[in-house]
């Protein structure tokens, strides 16, 4: 089932008004994007201390949360992916201590993680195509940034490093990493609007 923009906004509006059927349809409609995001995180070796079912449960909660947090200024899929990752990160604790995820120590490189992924149904294929297109557009815009801005954004958002860890990895000061982060996001917003 593919909704056009008006149908999506109407479904979201009804879900925000508490219509349980609309909430159920909204979650069902966005589940393929959540499933795809979970598959990509799992394949990348992220959050391997959870089963896919546990991750999917957190993703469903993120979809529910998105009903009240999404505003029409951003792309919904971007918002949902951010919420899913945040929800998992918030639950990524064991006995009260944060579980460090394995990360690559080598040079920052971009890979095509959407290649050769098996999907069974048409909705999953559509979600895969949407995410691939989104990634291509984002990578095109990221290539317009300076090397430092691009590396900072990659470290913070894709490698999930803190500002301090990014500064150490890139051999930059914390303040400069913050400035590059802000400048990179401002440029990306200008490119995308």
Poorly predicted runs are 94-122
The helix content, as a percent range, equals 55-70%
Text of the CATH class of the domain at 5-102: Mainly Alpha
| Helix-strand topology string | HHHHEEHHHH
Beta-strand percentage range: under 5%
Tally of helical runs? 8
Indicate the mean pLDDT: 75
How would you describe the overall organization of this protein?
- The chain is an all-alpha fold.
- It has a domain at 5-102: Rna Polymerase Sigma Factor, Chain: A (Orthogonal Bundle).
- It contains 8 helices and 2 strands; from the N terminus they run H-H-H-H-E-E-H-H-H-H.
- Helix 2 (20-43) packs across helix 5 and helix 6 packs across helix 8.
- It is globular and about 50 Å long.
Topology:
Elements: H1 5-16, H2 20-43, H3 52-69, H4 76-91, E1 93-94, E2 97-98, H5 122-142, H6 147-158, H7 163-170, H8 174-192
Antiparallel strand pairs: 1-2
What is the structure about, briefly put?
With 193 residues, this protein is an all-alpha fold. It is built from eight helices and two strands. It has a domain of 98 residues: Rna Polymerase Sigma Factor, Chain: A (Orthogonal Bundle), CATH 1.10.1740.
Keywords:
193 residues; mainly alpha; Rna Polymerase Sigma Factor, Chain: A; 2 strands; globular
